[in-house]
Amino acid sequence: MAVVLASLVGLVMVLTAFVRPLEFLGTAVVDWFNVLAAIAFVLGGANLLKMNLMKISARDAGWGYAAITVGAFLVTIGVGLLKVGAHPDPLHPDVALSGDKEAVGGAFWWLYEYAMSPITSTLFALLAFYVASAAFRAFRAKNTAAILLLGTAFIVLLGRVYVGVLLTSWIPADNAWVSWLRLENLSGIIMGVFNNAGTRAMMIGIAIGIAATSLKILVGLDRSYLGSGD
Amino acid sequence: MSQLGTPMVDPAVERRANRMMMVILAVICALLALRAVVGSSVGSGDAAVTEHGFGMVYVQEAKKGFVAEQSKEKAADGTEVEVRRWKPAAPGQTPEIAWTEWNEVTAGEWAAAQRAQAAAPASAPVVTVSWPRTAGVWFAALMTLAVLSFLWRDNPVYKLAESVVVGVSAGYWMIVATWDTLVPKLAGALVPAWTKAHLMPSLESAGVDWWGLVPLGLGMLLLCRLSARVSWLGIFPLAFVVGTFAGLRFVQNVESDLVAQVATMFEPLVVVKHQALAGADAAVAAPIDWAGSIGASLSAVLILVGVLSVLAYFFFSLEHKGALGRTAKVGVWYLMITFGASFGFTVMGRIALLAARFEFLFDDWLWLIDPSGKH
Amino acid sequence: MSTAPQPSFLARLDRIDRRWIFLMMAIAVAAPIIWVGVTGRTFPETATPAVQGAFDAIERLPEGSKVLVSFDFDPASAGELQPMATGFIHHCQLRKHRIYAMTLWAPGSPLIGATLADVIGNDPSYRYGENFVDLGYQAGNEGVMKQVGVDFPKAFPNDSKGTPLARIPMMQGITRLSDFDILISVSAGYPGGKEWVQYGVSPTLTQGHRLPFVAGSTGVQTPQMIPYYPVQMSGILGAIKGAAEYESLVNAKATAPGETVPAKYQEAQRRMAPQLFGHSLMVALILVGNVIFFAGRRKGAAA
C289 in contact with A at a CB cutoff of 8 Å? Predict the structure, then answer.
């Protein structure tokens, strides 16, 4: 039944791309899909609550942190659903929940601006340090391929900042026969020619793979998404 | 090995690491104390003051009041109906509903407002320190340092920050999806009158849309995954999602990533460019730009060779030997150049993110720099 | 009693605690930020063809054109992408285009409001609902992209404040994506620029109408977007360097000679100083690492 549903919905999406009068079907399916995607976030939140509550009740290692996670989650849900601190819509001030949930000054905004935003930004920023450490430890010019990779990395790293402009500023910029040797132009050539070619080939290969996998799902040959029980 | 299966750390090394961490924390606290004592000059001219503190946020009061107005309007069917509309209260008018908004201002504006308060309290704007937002800046700064402390080693403060962000992020995504999608598209479709009365008074609805029961039903089946007993019901919404994606991607990926990319390859390999001469007579053919022509032709050839050789590398149905092997080797060189370029760009991206965090710490928190004139 | 030989300088360098490298990176990024913050000096930027293409695509549109801007990023990538978003909105404001802002990332919703408030502010010539609108967030990723291509009001029934689109003057006549004059995506990953090319501006979805598309992308994503330029995309802003180049183009247009550029329009240019030192450090670390490697290999071969 699930396989039939997947095939049916998929075929509707394919048909509506080519048969204009059936466009309304595709719009309906996509509309339901978007609502289902929103409900999936509710599922994600509920699952987080369930897993952490289980950890707390079993007193597993690190259950204190699970309690903090649950507390932060429930506070966010509470202030978000009730729009704590967010003023109503000026056109409808008598409806308490009519305002913008993310109004500046509200509790939900405070959690986004001072908790979620800085911590997620810093977690991503940590990678700059690990990239430096990995470059020192692991990048070795052991063979031709590695030399090509490192050489390209040097050209791009230097060519994308002002030091690259300075290092090759002695090469005349108005002489087209040699100006391509300037680091900033070399990095442009690497991106526009070599990276372009390599990425394009990978893209073509991936597109063929996606087409094959999608077709297998549409005709019911691939049922891996149903899990091991089917 | 310890009872939990983790390798035992030499206690002497552990003690030395702890002592180092205490020293680093002490240095940071001392620097913060020094920063607070030194203070910052905020405001300009007569209003300039030295503020002994940092990481403060100032807000200006803006009072809002509303009164209701009854009027008669023509409905869609032509009948006259009584409508109640709200409008801002006029000066001197007693509002039926009122609240105060607080808008962020710079430290300079706060200093000027303090000066105006001292001179003419009745007419001066009310500008004050916002303690919730100031606490927020300090909380954000301490959480930033907590995450950065992971670079020293894993520690409880980092784990605390991690737990907070996991809980807040999950709650945030859930609330935004609820208010922005579920309320207008699900509640607004199935219970429009109640939604309009209590949640979205601006909602315009032609009545109950019973098709909303389809995503609601699928959503309820999806939520069954929370229970082990009925989680098998979740395969139906999953099949719906997978089918939709498969149908979408089958057409669109083929069009944009296969057909369009192959079509782009059908460009001339011999490119002839002409020099662009200012004021040249259109009837006279401009001379050939040899450098530009050779460069463009070489680029086209290199791109074609590159795409074919990388595709040859990824063709594993035949053994890579002979002509195919040599072509695949060229493909490997192209891939190495591609990965080298990706590495360079990745480094660029990560450093920009780190720079933004340092800017927050030095500008918004410590007030060491002020590139945008906020304080 | 025998004593073990002292390890050489290179051997000790090879075993260096990685926290020293972290400290070097921190100083390489932090020191230039303070220097730029105090002096206000930035490096000159010259636009590359992809960035010039993005600028020209917005510049050549007639005044008052309809521009759909998709803020497909979150605060984690704002360090790279916020200057691009600010630059795009500023450029559209200079050209008096009508700005329709939306997002496919839930945390991107407040970023729309903050950017519009920061750039447009209290400009009396730019009124909400007539010159710019904040459509907010909708869940569904590619589903939303597909839906806006066919039925825009169904995808976004109201703006971020809950006002129905029918009551917003500038939404009149907007039924699908091809009704816009250009699409701009500030993209951190999935869903983003790549998906807009696949599900937004491809000819089957726009009924053959060629909708110009311009994207700003992170450093990680930029190499993957290059094959789409210039046929499927009119321009790309690649990483913080692309943002700095675009800022310099827009500021040259907006600012008369001798006039001071507001600091909020130089965010990316300020961040190029830490980039310079960070990149130089990376190159130095790789070189030193290889020197240690080859010295060790030669020593091993000699032994």
Answer: yes
